[in-house]
Each structure stands twice: as structure tokens, then as C-alpha cells.
Design a protein that fits this description.
With about 160 residues, this protein is α/β, with parallel strands linked by helices. It starts with 15 loop residues before the first strand and ends in a 28-residue tail after the last strand. The strands form 2 sheets. Strands 1-5-2-6 form a 4-stranded mixed β-sheet, covered by helices on one side. It has a two-stranded antiparallel ribbon with strand order 3-4. The chain is globular and about 55 Å long. It comes from Chloropsis hardwickii. GO terms for molecular function: dipeptidase activity; metal ion binding.
């Protein structure tokens, strides 16, 4: 847990681990996503409150546009996977994979606590995972979503200057 300069220790938000399906014939895919966002103020250029998801009609009557901080990075991609599961269930279709989800709320601050959780759950929750999908991206334009197809890794540093 992070400690503030005054010594106060803040609890970390919980990481959500979820799973659906245990068919041994299906591969197990773990989907990662985060639900935290960078700070934003309406004065930054938002037409609506950045922390109130606002639905506005699109050009075509059946298209709706969602405006809000984190709608495409990264709540949209997290919700897309949940909607995919919901669709399979609504259509009474067999799931093609076993789903596992890791949804966390500290990515924008370096995913504090996530590494420890991954180590603790390595031999249990993650023991049967065949593939991992890092669903952390945004739309590059109004017509082009990003497709993350590889990661080189990250190096994070903390420097305190007195």
C-alpha cells in the first residue's frame, strides 16, 4: 500500500479476478484490463463532464457515441469482453474458450500491488491459462480502433528528490 508524505497509508483497490467456464476441451484465455483513468477537468476541453458517461446520437440513428474519461482507455475494451460473454449466453451458444478476467484499478499509477497478486496466484488462478490478452488500448481516430499485437515490456522508476 502506498504511503503519503504525512505517513498515512492508503489501501490499494481490489483487483477483480473472475472466471467463466472450465471445459477441459477449450483453451483458457485470460483477459487483462484496467478501469482507472488519468485525471481530467471539464476545462481541459470536454463538452460534457468527463466523469459522467454521456451517450450522444451518432451520424446514423442506430449508432450511439459514448463520451467520458476512460471510455476507450480502458473501460470500453473491458466492457467489450464482458459483452462478448453476455452475447454467447444470450444466444445460448457454447463458449469457445474458458474465460478468466483480471480487472484492476491502478494501471495509471503503475499497477501497484498487481505484481504481488500475480505471484501469489501463479499456481492457482493462473495455473491453467493458455493465452493472455492485454486489452489496454484506445481508438486512434473515430474510425480506427487500436489493435495491440505485441508488447515489449515496461520499465518504471520512482525518484524522490529532496
Amino acid at each position: 500500500s502506498p504511503q503519503l508524505p504525512d505517513g498515512q497509508v492508503l489501501p490499494l483497490p481490489s483487483v477483480i479476478l473472475g472466471e467463466l467456464g472450465k471445459d477441459p476441451q477449450n483453451p483458457t484465455v485470460c483477459f487483462y484490463g484496467h478501469v482507472d483513468v488519468q485525471p481530467a477537468k471539464k476545462e481541459d476541453g470536454w463538452n460534457t463532464d468527463p466523469y459522467t458517461l454521456t451517450e450522444i446520437d451518432g451520424v446514423l440513428l442506430f449508432i450511439r457515441n459514448l463520451y467520458g474519461r476512460g471510455a476507450t482507455d480502458n473501460k470500453g475494451p473491458v466492457l467489450a469482453w464482458i459483452n462478448a460473454v453476455e452475447t454467447f449466453r444470450a444466444l445460448k451458444l457454447a463458449m469457445p474458450v474458458n474465460f478468466k478476467f483480471v480487472i484492476e484499478g491502478m494501471e495509471e499509477a503503475g499497477s501497484l500491488g498487481l505484481e504481488k497478486l500475480l505471484e501469489e496466484e501463479n499456481q492457482s488462478f493462473f495455473s491453467d491459462v493458455d493465452y493472455i490478452v492485454i486489452s489496454d488500448n484506445l481508438w486512434l481516430s473515430k474510425k480506427k480502433p487500436a489493435l495491440t499485437y505485441g508488447s515489449r515490456g515496461n520499465a518504471c522508476f520512482f525518484v524522490e528528490v529532496k
